[in-house]
Design a protein that fits this description.
The strands form two sheets. The chain has a four-stranded parallel β-sheet. Strands 4-3-8-7 form a four-stranded parallel β-sheet. α4 links the parallel β3 (56-58) and β4 (78-79). It contains eight helices and eight strands; from the N terminus they run βααβαβαβαβαβαβαβ. The mean pLDDT is 94. It is of the alpha/beta class. The structure holds iron/sulfur cluster. Residues 62, 64-65, 109-110, 112-113, 191-193, 196-197, 200 line the site of iron/sulfur cluster.
């Protein structure tokens, strides 16, 4: 059976050397990429959610941040649109394109996205963090330290001051523990890991 592998952009920046590609090819993996612009598609979905929202829209791209806020603060002034993280959009496109041709491995930068991915139950698709995948396949982790994430904070920059950015758990805590009243922002960008996914628990 063919084995397809999608390396998420964070792992790709941190580990994507020519040696890695050779190693993966020797192990029978075919590296696949998305053809659709999922960043643009997700932005469009948020524009619509923000246009029709009654209060402030929560960024749903980081499942860890969303579940932490719901559990710890349960603010009644946030709306949670039904928009999947960008990585899930990529996985769905690849699943649709490669369905019936082999097994698809999707790598994630963190356990939260891995859990979300596996919970969807796409047939012949399995989600692993990059660290788990590397361990499973006996691939050494030759990590390049990144100063900034390939998907840095600023996803809602077009909203200027109407977009808040909470790009760490500390900032989330500070914001929600000191703001018991509704926020004036239209949207809150939410990332659990400091400055983004290059600091996730799976890379
Ligand atoms: S910020 Fe961290 S927890 Fe959130 S999606 Fe990125 S890697 Fe996962």
């Amino acid at each position: 059976m063919r084995k397809f592998l999608w390396i998420n952009p964070v792992a790709s920046e941190m580990y994507g050397t020519p040696e890695l590609k050779e190693e993966l090819a020797k192990k029978g993996f075919e590296i696949v990429t998305c053809r659709q612009d999922h960043i643009a598609a997700v932005k469009k979905k948020y524009r619509l959610a923000i246009e029709t929202a009654h209060t402030c829209v929560a960024d749903m791209r980081c499942p860890m941040a969303v579940s932490y806020i719901k559990k710890t603060y349960a603010p009644d002034f946030l709306e949670y649109p039904d928009i999947e993280p960008i990585l899930m959009h990529c996985a769905r496109e690849l699943h649709e394109r490669l369905s019936g041709k082999g097994f698809l491995y999707i790598t994630t930068p963190c356990t939260a996205l891995r859990e979300l991915g596996n919970s969807i139950g796409l047939p012949k698709v399995r989600f692993y963090t990059w660290a788990e995948f590397a361990q499973l396949e006996g691939i050494p982790l030759r990590r390049k330290i990144l100063d900034i994430s390939p998907i840095p904070p600023g996803f809602f920059a077009e909203y200027g001051k109407q977009a808040g950015v909470l790009d760490s758990r500390e900032k989330i805590d500070l914001h929600f523990s000191s703001l018991p009243k509704p926020t004036e922002k239209k949207v809150l960008e939410l990332l659990y890991c400091p400055r983004g996914c290059h600091n996730g628990d799976g890379v």
